Amino acid sequence: MFEAFYPVIETKRLVLRPLAISDSESLLSIFSDAEVMKYWNTPPWTSIQNAVAFINDSKDSMQRQVSLTLGIYLKSTDELVGKCMLFNYDKESKRAEIGFGLSRACWGKGYINEAGEALIQYGFNKLGLRRIEAEIDPGNLSSANALEKLGFSREGLLRQRWEINGVVSDSALYGRLVTDEPLKLNKA
Fold it and tell me: What pLDDT, in 10s, does the model give residues 139-177?
């Protein structure tokens, strides 16, 4: 099962693979953008140390088999354009949470649907998950739309769940079961 936490997943346009320290500058460029981080439960990154710490923490979590964090790379250029995660993995309950972060330059190109469905299928088929959950700010309509396109159902609302820099926000909860209809990606 250990190797299941170090996959390389290819889609039509993307490669999902574990992050390396050499990705630190690209990762910082993405996650220091206030627009990218607008709905996250942490402020924008401010130094290369944020990226290095994230990569090291991700590697540690993968070694302990509690989360899976993969960089999203363009197949055509090998450029890192984001990250996707299955985290809070609970082997006994066969569930995990999913999360994404994507460079603003890549928004609206279908990369989240493409990477998301690949990661979801990996979770169901290789990790044996029965359920994948997502928690987002209800004001994040782009993420809500992406989750719904990926076959997630909105299941609830946690009021006043987070406080970041003095701003209190709710969380909308979404879920997708292995028995739910898989996403039909456009083959064009």
Answer: 889 899 999 999 999 999 999 987 877 888 889 999 999
Tokens describing residue 1: 């099962």
Give me the DSSP letters along the chain.
Answer: -GGGGS--EE-SSEEEEE--GGGHHHHHHHHT-TTTTTTSSSPPP-SHHHHHHHHHHHHHHHHTTS-EEEEEEETTT--EEEEEEEEEEETTTTEEEEEEEE-GGGTTSSHHHHHHHHHHHHHHHTS--SEEEEEE-TT-HHHHHHHHHTT-EEEEEEEEEEEETTEEEEEEEEEEETTSPPP-----
- What is the Rg, in whole angstroms, of the alpha carbon atoms belonging to the chain? 16
> Under a CB-based contact definition with an 8 Å cutoff, are residues 136 and 158 in contact?
no
Q: Tell me the one-letter amino acid at 160.
A: Q
Amino acid 1: pLDDT: 56
156 vs 87, 121, 129, 170, 182, CA distance in Å?
A: 20, 24, 21, 11, 22
CB crowding 155-179: b at 16 or more within 10 Å, else e: eeeeeeebeeeeeebebbbbbbebe
